[in-house]
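Record type: ASSEMBLY
Status: queued
Input:
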Amino acid sequence: MRKVFLKTFALTVLVFIIGFYAGILFDNLRLEEIKSRLTEIDNLWNDVRLLQSFTQRMIDNKSLDCSILLRENLIAGDKIYQEGQKVEEYEKANRFTPTIFVEKERYALLDLQFWLNSIDMKRICNASYSTVIYFYSQYNKTTEQGFQDRVLLDLKEKCGPQIIYITFPSDMGITTLNVIRDIYNIEKLPAIMINESIVLYSPKSMRELEKYVKC
Amino acid sequence: MDIILDSVNLIFAFVGVYFTFLFILLFLSNKKKLLRRPKINSFPSVSIIIPAHNEEESIEGTIESVKKLEYPKKKEIMVVDDGSTDKTFEIANKFRDIKIFKKKRGGKASALNFGLKQAKGEIVVCVDSDSYPEKDALLKTVPFFEKNVAAVTTSVIVKNAKGILERLQELEYIMVAWSRKLFEYLDAIYVTPGPMSLYKKDVLQKLGGFDEKNLTEDIEIAWRLIKHKYKIKMALDAKVYTHVPKTIKIWWHQRIRWNVGGLQTTAKYFNLFLKKEFGNIGTFLLPLFSLSYALSIVGLFLIIYVAFVWVRYLIGAYMFGFNPIGPFLFYFVPDFFVVLAVISLLLTAFYIKMNFRTMKKVIEFPKKFRDILLYVFIYIGIFTFNLLHSSIRFIRKKYEW
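Status: finished
Output:
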């Protein structure tokens, strides 16, 4: 009789080992996918940055067609935004490979570059879109923060290219983000910054946010 | 909180997979023996006791089906009317060749003990007054009484399952009958069900009869028999049909009684926990029951917590004006728990398939996929709520029928 209990135990442990390895496999597959996507975004970003350099030169010639620049910038922004959502989902699912944090930092740096580019472009081309920057906590994910995530996602879905929506895990020790938090006096997380001027502390409803953005 | 939830999920998954494997292994190593019964040279004398309390609607049918039981020797049949206030006694009294006793209300166990004192047979057959044994049920059960066997149980089948609740109970009874047979191979049949169970009279008398304080005397006596190193066998193909509750209210009340009785029994024998010298009570039944109670209660709090999170989320959606069914809500991302869930689901499906394959040889029953889904995902879940209610009653010592 003892034999059947031991056999059962061995089988159960085996199932858990299979589950564990399958879990690691899924984690790694997701990680690889994120890495390959980040490489794609890297390329896309380089493309847009070159376009920006090209634009800077064209300003002097007064022959700038801002619409091409803005269009490409928005395409890049939307792509980065969608990839960001995927990184978030994958991060939730990954249980065995904390290296996704490294990918997330990389993604945040890309976002940072994109934001700075968007600021420049807005100034050069006198563009009308709003920038919504969301500073959230990576390590202290409160319910209120969860609500704010959802509100901002809906805002982006609603406004589409009318807003540039960028999210930053702001307590991961990224130097530039720390500097930005100091400059804009962002004392607590989560916080929302609109058009590099207004800082709102969460949670803010959809209706409240719509007062600040052109949508 | 995530770590706590993940840990609880892991424990649930481990226990679930372990017991499903246990049943599957028990089945695979004993499948040829499931419907086999020992040969018998001479049949012992039997006394059939029907305890009855306000059963005017079913008592006649029960007596008739008991009278039709095939047996090579004369059967002693007795009805013990336990203080009925309806026409149970009058209806039973119409039958000539059975003994009728009327006593003050004292509960089912007290009626059984009364019958036990009157019984002349070597084997005592207890039949509920709303149950109907098949005519060959005695011939299929009595041969199991070998040297150390003190009780034999039967497959309890739901009579006339029509509504959804009855059909779910029908599925439950079929699943339980099969698993009870598999428990036989662990010497751990934990209940000798009221609808029809057989006992060696001298053993019952030696152990002091049924426990009149326990709400489920059929669980308690089974544990007591195991404690005294007696064996309990199950005749899987011996059938007894019984009525089951048709309404949720009656069902709920019945299950509370069963659970409180189970808790009473667990508490009564808890001092044997992990003690090897008392059969499988200490080393298997008590850990199993304690674990299932604990996990059910934890599971219930988990359900409540998840429900709370969802309600909070919906309130948040309303207050902050976001769409609760967002684009990423149903985003499917496979992870470790998904792998475990899929394996558990496949094992459960295999378990159900094996169960039905065996039980089809015993009884014809409709297998509606919808009913099976309802049974696995809803019906079983309701038990946890019932168990919580029962636990509260048990703690408050509300031991009522």
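Annotation: Chain A has a mean pLDDT of 82.
Annotation: Chain A has two domains: 1-126, 128-215.
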